[in-house]
Fold this protein.
Amino acid sequence: MENNSNNPDYSHTDTNKVVVSNDAWKKRLSPEVYRVAREKGTERPWSSAYEESKEIGTYYCAVCGNPLFESDTKFESGCGWPSFYKPISKSSIIYEQDSTHGMRRTEVMCGRCGSHLGHVFDDGPPPTGLRYCINGVVLDFAKAQEAEKKYNKENNE
Ligand SMILES: [Zn+2]
């Protein structure tokens, strides 16, 4: 979890759009988050701890805190980046055609702050058939506390 004390727009509940200049983001975000989120960079494959994580909880935009994906829509894609088949809501994500690098891809961005997250492909599992391939560095994860308590209880008794 980033220290968000210098990022006043970060919120898990506020749904108002965040419009902040890249100059201001540069001061607020770590260089790696800035590079991926604001310059459409890509983290090295297999570099995110979230790639293999099976913890139960919610993934948020690391830039603005917008809820993006629930852990139960995460799956093992083998592509090297955290992968999900469905965003939390239609407004979680915005889409744009991306024809850079000689490929036709669909870019996915945060629906609240417009930060680059990754791409979506149509080779995912049911029920959506979609694979949201997301840079782990632009995700913040919060464990579901109820689920964790239940898990601990079941495994300690
Ligand atoms: Zn965001």
